[in-house]
């Protein structure tokens, strides 16, 4: 139940924040939040992460569905029955769903979180992207924890 509730929560927050951006900012409009570090900037991304595969929103939407289906159908092969993995799954599912909704409904993904520092600029992203990255990070942490515990068992 936790993964489903988290996925729904992430999807709602993602779509709500994107709606606010589309309502209150013009395309490419910039609002400085922390000078020299963080802005809100409305971007329409027709590609994937970092603007890769521009114009590929239809096949990226299809890929999103395939990944979500594979994760759901083979859940037990990818995720353990522990809180960390359930949270990771919920974040991944919610993030994938949020960006999928944009791709189908708008033919682009709304990006708006824009970080930069000392001449270096990170590509704009959104709540769904953040959830996906955190979900992947949690899965990596979980795998490291498993490997450490298996290594400790072998040492005893």
Q: Please give the alpha-carbon distance between the first and last residues.
A: 37 Å
Strand content: 15-25%
Q: How many strands in all?
A: 4
Q: What is the number of independent domains?
A: 1
DSSP summary: helix tally? 5
Kindly report the average pLDDT value: 91
Order of helices and strands: HEEHHHEEH
Helix content: 55-70%
- Identify the overall geometry: globular
How would you characterize the largest beta sheet? 4 strands, antiparallel
Provide structural commentary.
With 156 residues, the chain is of the alpha+beta class. The chain has one domain (2-155). It is built from 5 helices and 4 strands, in the order H-E-E-H-H-H-E-E-H. A 4-stranded antiparallel sheet has the order 1-2-3-4. Strand 1 (30-34) and strand 2 (38-45) form a beta hairpin. The longest helix is centred in the last third of the chain and has 29 residues, at 127-155. The relative contact order is 0.19.
SSE arrangement:
Blueprint (H helix, E strand, L loop, with lengths): L1 H23 L5 E5 L3 E8 L11 H17 L1 H4 L4 H24 L2 E9 L2 E2 L5 H29 L1
Antiparallel strand pairs: 1-2, 2-3, 3-4
Helix pairs in contact: 1-4, 2-4, 4-5
């Amino acid at each position: 139940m936790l993964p489903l509730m988290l996925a729904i929560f992430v999807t709602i927050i993602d779509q709500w924040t994107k709606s606010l951006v589309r309502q209150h900012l013009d395309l490419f409009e910039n609002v400085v939040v922390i000078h020299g570090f963080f802005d809100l900037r409305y971007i329409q991304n027709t590609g994937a992460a970092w603007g890769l595969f521009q114009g590929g929103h239809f096949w990226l939407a299809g890929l999103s569905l395939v990944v979500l289906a594979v994760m759901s159908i083979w859940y037990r092969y990818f995720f353990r029955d522990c809180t960390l993995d359930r949270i990771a799954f919920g974040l991944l599912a919610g993030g994938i769903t949020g960006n999928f909704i944009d791709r189908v409904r708008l033919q682009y993904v709304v990006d708006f979180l824009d970080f930069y520092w000392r001449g270096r600029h990170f590509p704009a992203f959104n709540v769904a992207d953040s959830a996906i990255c955190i979900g992947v990070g949690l899965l990596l942490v979980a795998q490291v924890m498993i490997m450490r515990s298996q290594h400790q068992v072998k040492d005893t």
